[in-house]
Amino acid sequence: MISLQQRSIAHFDLDCFFVSVECLSDSSLKGKPLLVGGRSDRAVVAACSYEARQYGIHSAMPMKTALKLCPHALVRNGDMEKYSQFSKDVTDIIARQAPLYEKSSIDEFYLDLSGMDKYFGTMKWTAELRQLIIKETGLPISFGLASNKMISKVATNEVKPNGQLQIPFGNEKIFLAPMPIEKLPMVGKETGAQLRQRGVENVKTLSEIPVALLEAWLGKNGISLWNKANGIDDTPVIPYHEQKSISTESTFAADTIDMQFINAELVRMTEKIAFELRQQNKLTGCVTIKIRYSDFETVTKQMSIPYTCCDHLLLEKVKELFKKLYDRRLLIRLIGVRFSHMVQGNYQISLFDDTQEMIALYQAIDHIKNRFGWQYLMKGTNVLSPEKKKLAGPTPLRPYYKKF
């Protein structure tokens, strides 16, 4: 059996993914400062090219600010449907080739290649997979190959764009030592400032600080940071399963055909599990609706959607799908909503045409729901009369995982 210390983990990252897809669609955009996002002054930058980054532009920056920094930058609206399809194309290629992989976000993957050196050259195999992805999709992609997930991700970041790097087993600390502390995962502006105030500027210095002292400075995060500075990461590669889903159902106290009530229930259930998606920092790429009629016939219908976890986008798809599915005009006993094809990500990347205010609104809504419970803040259409509340019957307070 291979120990954790002898693992071989590859981290693949599609370079400037949204920008690369846009350049693939329009080759005239290559080599130019390109911003992907909404066009209004209050919109935000969802992604930017390396050429745009040279002007100090970064993702989540207000579009107005970005255009002040680089007035001649080109702006393209985001197309989440197109990006989702390219992400799925890359996933399919990796799934065909890799023994074990984890899709950690729409554009990042971890592959566990432990033991493959007995039969293949792991670096050679990984490089060939990278070339296959480039050939079949046309997208640039980089990878790092190392003994754990953290080192492989840092290695990828060091060779982007369109590069590859292997860190041999035993060289983890040597690789990290000269790097600024901000190169480590978990070291953001605040943590970095705290450490630099104490004279800690590179990873080598950080790795030599007693773990008890780091814990005193940073709490439990100090222990995790000490491990990272010393190249230690036992996090497993979690197998990716498209079938993983989150869903909820509502069985009515009495069979009904009251569309106003059913619409309110669809809104309530969608908001509930969309909130759960955001809590887990996940996006869904597939929506399924379930209907059980009064004669107990049960039907389901699903559709693939651009990755998102936004209430207003998901509600549109849920209602559209329900209208297509509900065709018998019988009384309904139960309805259900399921989100599947889930990947890591946050809702900012899908709000291409939304403003900073919209993003702030979602953050405020989720803050209130986290503090008081999801059911204490909902759309007005969810407010039912006492009679219709009786019709709804008891409902679970939290989403649950199951198969329809």
TrEMBL record:
It catalyses: DNA(n) + a 2'-deoxyribonucleoside 5'-triphosphate = DNA(n+1) + diphosphate. CDD domains: PolY_Pol_IV_kappa (cd03586). Binds 2 magnesium ions per subunit. Mg(2+) binds at D13, D107. Its EC number is 2.7.7.7. GO terms for molecular function: DNA-directed DNA polymerase activity. It is found in: Cytoplasm. The active site is at E108. Its main location: cytoplasm. Keywords: Cytoplasm, DNA damage, DNA repair, DNA replication, DNA-binding, DNA-directed DNA polymerase, Magnesium, Metal-binding, Mutator protein, Nucleotidyltransferase, Transferase. Belongs to the DNA polymerase type-Y family. This is DNA polymerase IV. It comes from Chitinophaga defluvii. The gene is dinB.
